[in-house]
């Protein structure tokens, strides 16, 4: 695992460098996209590079997770968030960005179909990740099986409180359930690039990098990945030895 400690703008450029190098060498690469605040500067940087000539036209992308039950037009539905933050701002082909279907009648079947779609695409080349204050990646909350695949999960109170800021501050408006890629799904990606900034992430980053590999700190499974890059600012790194 490579850990880089730098200011947030530099971290975003480093993550964008990795995406750009991938796309230049493999224009039909498969990207893994996270939502939340952590990757936003990366997406802004990728949009700048797109305006300077970087093309996503042959690339595909898979999202990490989705809330269950948010109406199709809800601005916090992750499909809409990804559309707004990156997909609509670069030249992905229509349909090239996919996410788990949190509105499916049969959620279990939707999870299986999502796993099959990722496999059919040849797997994810580069997965962008954030980390929750409780150590989740995607929505694999503490206690998630390290062998898990895309499935329905219940969000912890902590995650719903953390995400209330996207729902006008109301924790009651944050959905209780989600569909999320599993830890084994994420670990199948060929390169993991995780971004974390701010003091609230310091304990989770410590456990990710220096803790024992444990389902209680799900991101710690990344210690077993052959190509994982952890990009953190000083505050998020403040608990590292
Ligand atoms: C979002 C996701 C989550 C977030 C995490 C951190 O798709 O998978 O794991 O990355 O909750 O969220 P932020 O970046 O908003 O602190």
From TrEMBL:
Its EC number is 3.5.99.6. The active site is at residues 65, 134, 136, 141. GO terms for biological process: carbohydrate metabolic process; glucosamine catabolic process; N-acetylglucosamine catabolic process; N-acetylneuraminate catabolic process. It catalyses: alpha-D-glucosamine 6-phosphate + H2O = beta-D-fructose 6-phosphate + NH4(+). Keywords: Allosteric enzyme, Carbohydrate metabolism, Hydrolase. One of its GO terms (cellular component) is cytoplasm. The record marks 144, 151, 153-154 as: Part of the allosteric site. InterPro entries: Glc/Gal-6P_isomerase, Glucosamine6P_isomerase, Glucosamine6P_isomerase_CS, NagB/RpiA_transferase-like. Allosterically activated by N-acetylglucosamine 6-phosphate (GlcNAc6P). Pfam families: Glucosamine_iso. Residues 8-223 form the Glucosamine/galactosamine-6-phosphate isomerase domain. GO terms for molecular function: glucosamine-6-phosphate deaminase activity; identical protein binding. Pathway: Amino-sugar metabolism; N-acetylneuraminate degradation; D-fructose 6-phosphate from N-acetylneuraminate: step 5/5. SUPFAM superfamilies: NagB/RpiA/CoA transferase-like. Belongs to the glucosamine/galactosamine-6-phosphate isomerase family. NagB subfamily. Catalyzes the reversible isomerization-deamination of glucosamine 6-phosphate (GlcN6P) to form fructose 6-phosphate (Fru6P) and ammonium ion. This is Glucosamine-6-phosphate deaminase. The lineage of its organism: Bacteria, Bacillati, Actinomycetota, Actinomycetes, Micrococcales.
């Amino acid at each position: 695992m490579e850990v880089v400690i730098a200011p947030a703008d530099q971290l975003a450029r480093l993550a964008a460098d990795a995406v750009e190098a991938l796309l230049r060498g493999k224009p039909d690469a498969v990207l893994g996209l996270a939502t939340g605040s952590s990757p936003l500067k990366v997406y802004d940087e990728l949009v700048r590079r797109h305006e300077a000539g970087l093309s996503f036209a042959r690339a595909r992308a898979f999202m990490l997770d989705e809330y269950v039950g948010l109406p199709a037009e809800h601005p916090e539905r992750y499909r809409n968030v990804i559309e707004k933050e990156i997909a609509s701002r670069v030249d992905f082909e229509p349909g090239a960005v996919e996410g788990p279907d949190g509105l499916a009648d049969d959620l279990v079947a939707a999870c299986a179909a999502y796993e099959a779609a990722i496999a059919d695409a040849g797997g994810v080349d580069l997965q962008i990740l954030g980390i929750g204050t409780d150590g989740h990646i995607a929505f694999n909350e503490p206690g998630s099986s390290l062998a898990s695949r895309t499935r329905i999960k219940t969000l912890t109170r902590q995650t719903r409180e953390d995400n209330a800021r996207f729902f006008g501050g109301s924790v009651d408006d944050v959905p209780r359930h989600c569909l999320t890629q599993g830890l084994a799904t994420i670990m199948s990606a060929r390169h993991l690039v995780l971004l974390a900034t701010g003091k609230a992430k310091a304990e989770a980053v410590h456990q990710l990098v220096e803790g024992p590999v444990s389902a209680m700190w799900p991101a710690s499974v990344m210690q077993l990945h052959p190509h994982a890059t952890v990009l953190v600012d000083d505050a998020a790194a403040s608990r590292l030895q």
